[in-house]
């Protein structure tokens, strides 16, 4: 029996996923949540075989939760189920030790087969997305530029970002300017949009 944890913030979709998986005789849904902050504590308690996570969750996003699970509950493999089919998201997922990456418009059979494969230790990635990731160019921003841009995307001002990262305000502004230039963006807001659409944030 494959024991599955599901985290999806859209109530109707989450309930549909649970109902679909309950038809499978060898799959048991042991927990479901809408908030990413619940994933790690419940996974520690329940020790599921597979965690099926949305990327864009409130609280803790799915990719962060996947990285935390790989360290804290290593026997629990993770699979991202997302509508955000961007090459950058796939790269971030692989860096977070995710075992599966499927789009939400995949068929129910494909989902259940993928969960079984991931539970066996295999890696399952949507083939079209894998090809797109191979064709996509490298991400141009440095880790620090990305980090500063992530804080800016949350609405933080330069002074707040500087305090959190132990940098000067001028250095933070330089990182933001560099990110805007590298992404050929009009301004900081445009740079955040470009980075989000590419799946880098």
TrEMBL record:
Pfam families per UniProt: GerE, Response_reg
Location of 4-aspartylphosphate modifications: 54
Positions of the HTH luxR-type domain: 134-199
InterPro entries per the UniProt record, alphabetical: CheY-like_superfamily (IPR011006), Sig_transdc_resp-reg_C-effctor (IPR016032), Sig_transdc_resp-reg_receiver (IPR001789), Tscrpt_reg_LuxR_C (IPR000792), WalR-like (IPR039420)
Entry keyword annotation includes Transport: no
Gene Ontology terms describing biological process: phosphorelay signal transduction system; regulation of DNA-templated transcription
SMART domains: HTH_LUXR (SM00421), REC (SM00448)
GO MF annotation terms: DNA binding
Source organism, top-level taxon: Bacteria
SUPFAM superfamilies: C-terminal effector domain of the bipartite response regulators, CheY-like
Assigned keywords, A-Z: DNA-binding, Phosphoprotein
Coiled coil location: none
Domain Response regulatory: 3-119
PANTHER family to which the protein is assigned, alphabetical: TRANSCRIPTIONAL REGULATORY PROTEIN DESR (PTHR43214:SF42), TWO-COMPONENT RESPONSE REGULATOR (PTHR43214)
The name this protein goes by in its record: Two-component system response regulator
């Amino acid at each position: 029996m494959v024991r599955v944890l599901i985290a999806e913030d859209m109530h109707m979709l989450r309930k549909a996923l649970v109902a679909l998986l309950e038809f499978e005789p060898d799959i048991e849904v042991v927990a479901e949540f809408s908030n990413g902050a619940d994933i790690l504590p419940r996974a520690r308690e329940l020790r599921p075989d597979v965690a099926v996570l949305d990327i864009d969750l409130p609280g803790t996003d799915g990719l962060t939760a996947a990285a935390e699970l790989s360290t804290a509950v290593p026997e629990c493999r993770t699979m991202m189920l997302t509508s955000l089919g961007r090459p950058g998201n796939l790269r971030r997922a692989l860096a977070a030790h995710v075992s599966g990456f499927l789009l939400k418009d995949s068929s129910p059979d494909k989902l259940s087969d993928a969960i079984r494969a991931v539970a066996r230790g295999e890696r399952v990635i949507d083939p079209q997305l894998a090809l797109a990731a191979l064709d996509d160019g490298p991400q141009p921003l440095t880790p620090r530029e990305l980090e500063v841009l992530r804080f800016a995307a949350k609405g933080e001002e330069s002074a707040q970002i500087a305090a959190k990262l132990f940098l000067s305000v001028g250095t933070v502004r330089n990182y933001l300017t560099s990110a805007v230039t590298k992404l050929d963006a009009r301004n900081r807001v445009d740079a955040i949009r470009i980075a989000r659409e590419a799946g880098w944030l």
